[in-house]
Design a protein that fits this description.
By secondary structure, the chain is an alpha+beta fold. 23% of the residues lie in helices and 25% in strands. It contains four helices and ten strands, in the order βαβββββαββββαα. It has helices spanning 16-31, 99-116, 188-191, 198-208; strands spanning 7-13, 38-43, 47-50, 68-70, 78-80, 84-90, 121-122, 136-138, 144-153, 156-164. A seven-stranded mixed beta sheet has the order 1-2-6-10-9-8-7, sandwiched between helices. The two termini are 18 Å apart. The relative contact order is 0.20. The mean pLDDT is 94.
Length: 212
């Protein structure tokens, strides 16, 4: 894995659509070389975000009252809420890199962060013809703990990952997450309660991404 130091930006709870506006600004600045590669750590109020390929039957019942927002990232439906750590990555890729290469790097860095926190985790290769297994999974229980959806524009990445730390997992069950009806979404609070302190998780993730 190549060395790739990032500038770290941190916020607490940020409305999803306002975050998208700021991320667009950050991407433009990086495309113009007005800022360095950046990791933005934050959380969102409750919201479902859907990619371009998300089938209508995977959406939640509107009666639950959680908004559904279309987004330009890759991947399918994801839930965001308090107690989840979101990381947006604004990174200029090398000429020899594509977005799939970088997503693999993101998975491996998050596996490293989780390992430092005492949660054994792994990335998975997708079998031919299967739904993409992008993300990070717990090694012992086989549950999904990190969702990843990214894109690139003019060589710069946007969007990123969502790591479930200690939030309510119930809303994941109200929709079809990641295009996989049988996926078992989990959190650090479920897998390793003693490690599920947001400040500690933020620090481990920042270190794994060489972000300061």
């Amino acid at each position: 894995m190549r060395r790739r130091p990032l500038s770290l930006v941190q916020d607490d709870l940020v409305d999803y659509e306002k975050a998208m506006e700021r991320m667009t600004d950050l991407v433009g600045q990086r495309q113009r070389d007005e800022r360095s590669d950046t990791l933005w750590l934050l959380s969102h109020p409750q919201v479902y975000t859907v990619g371009r390929r998300t089938p209508e039957q995977h959406l939640p019942d509107p009666a639950h009252g959680i908004p559904v927002v279309s987004t330009g990232r890759g991947g399918q439906l994801t839930y965001h809420g308090p107690g989840q750590l979101v990381g947006y990555l604004v990174v200029k890729l090398g000429e020899d890199e594509g977005i799939v290469d970088y997503v693999r790097e993101v998975e491996l860095r998050l596996v490293r962060a989780l390992g430092a926190l005492g949660v054994a985790a792994e990335r998975r290769d997708t079998p031919p013809g299967s739904e993409l297994l992008t993300g990070v999974w717990t090694s012992g229980t086989g549950r999904k703990i990190v969702s990843i959806g990214m894109r690139q524009s003019r060589g710069v990445t946007s969007h990123g990952f969502a790591l479930n730390v200690d939030g309510d997992l119930t809303p994941w069950g109200w929709a079809v997450a990641c295009g996989m009806p049988d996926v078992d979404m989990t959190s650090m609070g479920r897998e390793a309660p003693a490690a599920a302190a947001m400040d500690r998780v933020r620090a481990a993730v920042a270190e794994a991404f060489e972000a300061s």
